[in-house]
Design a protein that fits this description.
The protein is an alpha+beta fold. The protein has two domains: 90 residues, Jelly Rolls (Sandwich), CATH 2.60.120.10; 72 residues, Winged helix-like DNA-binding domain superfamily/Winged helix DNA-binding domain (Arc Repressor Mutant, subunit A, Orthogonal Bundle). Helix content is 35%, strand content 28%. The strands form four sheets. The chain has a five-stranded antiparallel sheet with strand order 1-4-11-6-9. Helix 1 crosses helix 2 and helix 4 packs across helix 5. The N terminus and C terminus are likely disordered.
């Protein structure tokens, strides 16, 4: 991770760090914070993609969310006097993230109404997205969940519609097996929804799987 202090500013689509914020670059696979660590900072994803995952006491892991740019993460530390991280955040691609010390962030919320309003708006939007993700996981087939995830990954990639995530990681993120992911990827390719050159390319037509009323695989999940 690399970082530098940046100046105060707000702009449409991007929240730039106010005074006291630090602009950090995280490499693909680098952890932003780790479950069990002290919750001492709040983060805003300016560019990139972040996986939020958790591990149970018996060692069972799960992906809780995949967060695109324009979203806060680690904000649960604001709710507790001595916060401890209940999940791990990992950069899925090279990411640029603004980091605020918890105390400085709370002071900004108290003294900068414009900043506070922006934060509330962003957190409300994330809550809505989390609700959509929960509905997606409960009601939709693994095929739909995979299609939705591929479209999200394609949207945030700087090279266009390229996706650079292994099938093992996709399976973990969707909540299914690698064999199911492999089956659906082959099906999507056969139907022209995705293609391969040096990397996986996602075509807009894949959205037809997400929008379909009837699950393509006929099973849940």
């Amino acid at each position: 991770m690399t970082g530098c202090v940046v100046s105060s500013s707000l702009s449409p689509g991007h929240l730039l760090a106010p005074e006291g914020g630090t602009l950090c670059d995280y490499a693909k696979g680098e952890r932003i914070f780790v479950q069990g660590d002290e919750g001492d900072a709040v983060f805003f994803i300016r560019r990139g993609l972040v996986k939020i995952s958790a591990l149970s006491p018996n060692g069972k892991g799960a992906v809780i969310a995949v967060l695109p740019d324009g979203v806060f993460c680690g904000e649960t530390c604001l709710a507790e006097p001595q916060p401890v991280r209940n999940a791990t955040a990992t950069a899925l691609v090279d990411s640029r993230i603004t980091r605020w010390d918890r105390t400085a962030f709370l002071q900004l919320l108290q003294h900068d109404p414009e900043f506070a309003a922006t934060v509330v708006s962003r957190l409300a939007a994330r809550a809505g997205r989390m609700e959509e993700d929960l509905i997606d996981h409960i009601l939709n087939s693994s095929e739909k969940r995979l299609a939705r995830l591929l479209l999200l990954l394609a949207e945030v990639d700087q090279d266009g519609a390229a996706v650079k995530v292994s099938q093992e990681v996709l399976a973990e993120m969707v909540g299914t097996t690698r064999s199911r992911v492999c089956y659906f990827m082959n099906k999507f390719r056969r139907l022209g929804f995705i293609s391969y050159s040096d990397q996986l390319i996602v075509h807009p037509s894949l959205r037809s799987v997400v929008d379909a009323d009837v699950p393509h695989d006929g099973t849940h999940p």
